[in-house]
Amino acid sequence: MEENNKNILVISVHTWNDEGGSNTLQNLFKQFDPANIYSVYTRADFPKSKFCNNFYQIREISLLRRLFIRKEKVGSVVPSNSAKENVKTLQENKVKKIYKQVSSPLFTFMRELLWLTDYWKEESLKNYIKNSNADTVFILVSSVIYSNRIALYAKELLPKSKVVIYFVDDSYTYAAAAKSFFGIWHRYMLRSTLKKLVQKASDVFVISPKMKREFDRSFSISTKILTKSIDPITIKNSTNNLSNNKIIKLLYVGNLLYGRNTELFNLAQHISEYNTKYGVKFQFDIYTQTTPSTADISKFNKYQNCSLNKPVPYSEVERLQSQYDILIYPESFRARYIRITRLSFSTKATDYLASGKMIWAIGPKHIAPMEYFATNHCALVSTSRATIFKDLGKIANDKVNSEELIKNARKCCMLFHDEEQQGLIFRNAVYN
């Protein structure tokens, strides 16, 4: 069978959305024929993507309703690029908000019990998977058991298919588990399903060198590093010359989750203090899709030359970045968030590397992105809150070699994130 005729079934929690902040799937499959990609996902949103034409949605709110309404349909084929929102979608969006508000190990435990009912194994899903005639089942791993069970079910229905797995977060080690009975139980069961998938997999991809080291030991295999790829043509030349700027402009575009809001607000406070003490040297702007609390908005607006703004479309981010001098990459210093982010490597990082702008990374020393930036000397790295004011002084007084950092960032793009190289690695895994 020719490569471009092979079908791929993608199992994920999240919806494909080309305008969303997370574009992992789009980046992986942008070189593939959309007609050969099939997707089973569990979020409420409708997909909006030019990279996949075939979608099957398992609706969690319908799974809950199925406990009480025998005729309730849990899943169905859904259209791509549809603007409509039906009643069930709106209901599940409300449920998703509740999940975020009351998320806890016990709540996660109850959620997984709901999926154990297997009401999602409808005839329509069975037919969709079989009719995909997929040669490869690709799993974008999440920290939920039910997604892995869907993948194992798909493999059962497609016994001749190969399995390819991609870890983008620490969904396996106990270090990332909530420290409670239900948290440890959930991690134990999650690890059990992941072990089964890894045993069936021909290739296992991970997102960072730190994750590779740990997962190679855990699974006794050789995983492969796969990150968001960069087209060399799009890598920007340096536009930084901080010493010539009267005001140095700092930018963060992204969510305020996992404690990032605390680190960003701490930076804003230091900037305000620096501007007050030495005259206005810095401007700091945040654009975020996360809705801050009224208290946070009030607090942030008090900081001198700092602004908190509504989000811009993903397609506008690159243009916005071109207007600033330094891009901020924050991760939380709090232990509860370190366990979540310590092995991850955001798609934002590769975008930053190709931007032609200086990167300022703020976060704990031993998490994956800080290790990457420090090892490759491609960003100013602050691994303690205590050094931030001092680092502002270094930037303001031209004691940071921004040109060298940007030059090294460009090298990283070519060495580790080259589109042709990354694409070849992934296509070989999927097709061969």
TrEMBL record:
Q: What is this protein called?
A: Glycosyltransferase family 4 protein
Q: Which organism is it from?
A: Marnyiella aurantia
